Amino acid sequence: MSVIRQRILADMQRFSRAMIGAVLFLPVIGLILALSSVLTNPTLISETSFLHQVGQLLGDTFWPLFGNLGLLFCVGISYGLAKDKKTEVALVAVMCFIMFLGANHSWLEYTHTIAEKVNGEYYGTGQTQILGFVVVDMGMFLGIILGCTIAWVHNKVSEIELPGALSMYGGAKLTLIVMTPVIILYAIAFTWFWPIMTHGIAALTGFMKNAGVAGVFVYGFFEKFLILTGLHHFVWSPFQLTQIGGSLSVDGQTVSGTQAIFLAYMRHPDLTPIMNEALRFSQQGMTTIFGLSGAALAFYHTASPEKKMMAKAILLPAIITSILTGITEPIEFTFLFISPLLWLIHSTLTAASQALCDLLTVRPWGASGLIEFLVYNLPLPVALTRWPVYVLIGIGQFAAYYVIFRTLVIKLNLKTPGREDDGEVKLYSKEDYRNKKANAGQAVTDEIIRGLGGKENIISVDNCFTRLRVALHHPEHIDEALLKSTGANGVVRNQNEVQVIYGVKVGQVRARVDNWLANN
After folding, report:
1. Which of 337, 376, 462, 464 is deepest in the core (most CB within 10 A)?
2. Which three-class secondary structure state does DSSP give residue 492?
3. Catalytic machinery residues
4. Where does the chain cross the membrane (predicted)?
5. Quick check: pTM over 0.70?
6. For residue 444, what is the domain's CATH number?
């Protein structure tokens, strides 16, 4: 059973890596839409002004991306899961997605089951209109299902060599051919099957709402606790991006997920007196600003006197990254491997703060760092989000982290930064640390490849927000010390996959790793 569990976990991690490719773009899209919402907010800017028109243009440009997340995830997941010919697979994914829309619309017409609009829209009918087609409303899940299927079929058939004149139809073209009957089958089956799933999704949403504070606590705990495995995306993404997080009808359109709902309020702050209850699940960013700052201060104050400056050199850049951008791994990985108990407490305190926000009906957008928090919340009426109470809870969270972490570090003699035994862990001066970060930025040197066991040991390379994820033939051949010397904050092993934590520079690391592998 352990082998089966490990295989399932590995498959889930591969899927998580593939999904994050599309997710990485969402913060950029969200911030631009937030700016659009600010510019089109009539309480701030006149509707006749040029800035209002600019905001309207930005909104009209980027809102369709949120309305077509299924297509984005279909392309991103198929690209991420495909073993080869990735560019061709992405093109096949676009074609298959459009084919499904056409086939599903055709079947609904044939069976006379196209829904009637309610007040000029399809909201509540279980159907929606995408790219001009009326289809079963599957949201992001359509892209996930199609993307996984396309990648699976492609990995099975892309290496098949067809004989003679048929050889030109091999590779990705054969993937498209094989997917054709699958697409038609899906288009028919989901007409009957997906309404059942829709009821299930509604039941899950209802359960989370009925669970009240306990539901928010469970959400907050696992969203943080699963970061180690990389599976935390499965916790927050359905709430932020799908109807599991809730749905709202605005201007004749249906928006789903907490982020889209909040952005809708930025355009229409008078929708309700208090922010929609879906936003109960969007306060995990409090920890990135307040909680981890308390933990970092506790680490600094408990460091040995002669090592305080060196500890500061490590902690300060990491906590600034956490506060401003919401990228937490650099600071979290300074204590994750030192004490699993601290990690458990970290997850519990994160969940408790979100539960307290729910108890006090505090619902700002607090899913990430300070920059996003200010951009999203300041333009809205305070009475709508009650964000000052969020700040007060955050200050309390800061104090709780500081007291608990400081007490445990001293009582259990934990080897946090500045407390290591001599010779065990090297601490860096500011100059050393800058050089370390520069090496991470420049990324691929022979040392990184050697640290991964050499080119011949590398199967594939991916990345998420902060981690370089590498599948290896022989994980036991990696050199953790060498990898850390190139700027890595930590290394996580799981079966044949290694996750190397580089922080916010990981995109540059990934690009240069790919370039090195392609040219050596």
Report:
1. 376
2. strand
3. 464
4. 20-41, 61-82, 89-108, 128-153, 174-194, 200-222, 309-328, 387-405
5. no
6. 3.30.1360.60
